[in-house]
Amino acid sequence: MYTTNKQKIINDPVYGFITIPDALIFDVIEHPYFQRLRRILQLGLTHYTYPSAQHTRFQHALGAMHLMGLAIGVLRSKGIEISEEEAGGANLAILLHDIGHGPYSHTLELAIVRDLHHEDLSKLFIAELNRQFEGRLDLAYSIFNDTYPKKFLHQLVSSQLDMDRLDYLARDSFFTGVAEGVISYDRIIKMLTVCDDELVVEGKGIYSIEKFLISRRLMYWQVYLHKTVIAADQLLVNLLKRAKFLREKGEILFATPAFDAFLLNNPTRSDFESGSKWLDLFSQLDDFDIFTSIKVWINHPDRILSDLCKKLVNRHLFRVEMQTMPFETGYVDLLRKKTSETYNLAPDEVDYYFTCDKVENKAYNPRHERIMIKGKSNELLDISKASEQLNNVVMPTTLSKYVLCYPKEIR
What we know:
This protein is of the alpha+beta class and 411 residues long. Helix 8 (163-176) crosses helix 10, helix 11 (227-248) crosses helix 12 (257-264) and helix 11 (227-248) packs antiparallel against helix 16. It is built from 18 helices and nine strands. It has a four-stranded mixed beta sheet with strand order 3-4-7-8. It has a three-stranded antiparallel beta sheet with strand order 5-9-6, sandwiched between helices. It has helices spanning 23-30, 32-35, 57-77, 84-95, 118-132, 138-144, 151-157, 163-176, 185-190, 206-224, 227-248, 257-264, 269-273, 277-282, 287-297, 303-313, 329-343, 383-386; strands spanning 9-12, 16-19, 192-195, 198-202, 319-323, 355-361, 372-374, 380-382, 399-406. The chain has a domain at 9-226: Hypothetical protein af1432 (Orthogonal Bundle), CATH 1.10.3210. The chain is globular.
């Protein structure tokens, strides 16, 4: 009888060799739900700005699992009790934390499924995998949902200092080449400990945490909220809205069966929770479904859909203006009018070419979750109070910028 060797080593460009911890994790990785992540870009259309940023959710999930293994090893060395079962559950929880992402990751969040964030879909996927694996993911599901008694295990999966954030900053800075995002993930992990069931950082690790928070803020402005990335994202969102509008009117559009189901319908949370139909359809979607359709839609008779698709495929992106203050109403109205006249658009069609929006950058939110620093006398202080370097007013504050997107032909 043929048997598969499940003791695999994966060569990762960020960390070197990543080891698959056990046979169950290997089987989960091999599952079609997880393999789908190979076909979903981690940073959506960011490669339109940073050409090498074409890494996937699959790579990110494996990297986060690798960091989880390092963190568990460090905590055990400091006397924190973590059983083999708990370690396996934590590894599975972080491995599957992003399994609910749809095509192009955050770019199309709520655009394909309007009622569910990717975290909600991840819960549904983990629950379904647990059913298929006959309850062997019970502990992982409990840790992911923060219902397991040891709360620090959930914090390793989802918190201000989780393995998700450590990996995506390290990985995204590596693949974009943005040096400002480089963090000392290994140093941070070595400084982790647990006090009263809370994940905290030893005092001598405070400078690495400061660098982590600053890097995260800089990565948002330089990568995640870069104006050209916003332009590409907005173009993709707008053309998908147009396609959905046409399909709901009864027009036939080229699409895979799964993609067509979401163009034609608006499944709700209850639809997903009431059965496996919509989850199965969602599991068939990836970036390839979307972009293949877009290439075909270039030749669609609807001039708006055709033009938007042509712009995205050929990277003829919108112009983007960003500033810290809201744009004057008169200026916005003038640009809308010029856009309408240039493209001969009806009032209800202008928004396909014109967007006025606001983006936010928050590196740290102590009111939501805390990063606690353990001092020499074992006292615990929030990083915003313990740090001498960070501005205690600026770091917890949300920084906003106002955005205008419109065609470059408009002057």
